[in-house]
Amino acid sequence: MPTPATMNILITLLLFVLPVLFLLSWRRRGSSRKLPPGSLGIPMIGQSFGLLRAMRTNTVEEWLGERVRKYGPISKLTLFGKPTVFIPGQAANKLVFCGDSSKIASKQSSSTCAILGDCNLMELTGQDHKRVRDSIVSFLRPESLKQYVGKMDEEVRKHIELHWQGKERVAALPLMKNLTFNIICSLLFGMEERAEREKFSQSFEIMMEGMLSIPVNLPFTRYNRSLHASSRIQALLKEVVQGKKAKLEQRTATPHQDLITCLLSKRTEENERVMTDKEILHNIMVIMVAGYDISSALITFMLRLLSKNPAVYKAVLQEQEEIAKSKTSGEPLTWEDLAKMKYTWSVAMETLRMVPPVFGGFRVALKDIEYGGYVIPKGWQIFWASNMTGMDGSIFPEPSKFDPSRFENQKSVPPYSFVAFGGGPRICTGNEFARVETLVAIHILVTQYSWELRSDDHYIFDPMPVPTQGLLLWIVPKKEK
Fold first, then answer.
1. SS3 of 310, please?
2. Could you read off the pLDDT of 134-151 as tens digits, one per residue?
């Protein structure tokens, strides 16, 4: 019988030898499949800090471009705890958004999934994705949104009265976040009490900070703080959902008065709920993030780019003033008014091309995928970046020039080159809501105020684009000019 000392030596050898043998066999298996060029780097960490540093110094386009110059149109690396393949370009966008669903599936980073929940649309696949998506779209389709234009108009005017009137200088981004958050709470979740909204907003900013972080759950890390904030928000949302359930049972609520009530009301032919409470909760989280950060970033950067391009601003102002002249004092905007804002929406699209609120995202390979002469192994992340086509001079000539005319004819934009709202079956469910929200806000702002930049022109990604000092503006009410 081996002595205790011999047993300790054997255990130590096993602990050392087995991982080495596993690593060698994995490498032999990988070498036979011709993996993309590049280095995976340090396990779990890899190139995560490099990407985050590039985002926070607004050099992410250069960082990604250097990878393409060094390794070509496909390369491997490690991001946020997982082996990853980076693929840029139109072909990559087509694979990401319209690829074979048996081979590729939506899958966000580990940190995003943990914070938003594993039943959200970005994680669901197949019939589950279709079932949940159809339920959400039934509320967010244009036919349903028509009735909420007036309510959005009211929220924007209320916001301006509280935060813009009487001021000489404002920070645009924080105010736009405040505005879009209140619109979401009011129109989508039926929260009219400001105190109720405040409970959410206190934790929301903290939660957003850890959305794209290395998933190491240690005290004092962004990821840890974000997880705790997510738990607080989900607990508050559960109370809201329960309250709306009770109102439906008491017949004091109608199915289409807000998104949560609509989702709770959805039934199958067998009279069973279409979505579970967990699915409703996790997808509310996603919609809150999209409506809060993406729309606020779009409106903020439209204000920035309009201030830097006087001719474009003049054309937007002319379009909006024509609409304003057709209204009586205090009369809210209508769906028909929004249909006349074609040039303004072209400005929004060009803003999204130059400063995409979501700079990229992830998918997962469900099987080995052959791409560009290499194999993307099953289980690996696939990372795509929207600015790689948006700022490609061969697709959009003079890409650094702000030129809304690129989008006046949508058919002239090459397929899979503009993916600010995604594409195919994965196109953003809230894109129409974002359009309405943006056009209403811009109409009221340009017809009531003039503004000039009072901060420098820098911005970073954290993970959404954030201008220096929140984009300080010197503002002048039109009636005082």
1. helix
2. 898 888 888 888 888 998
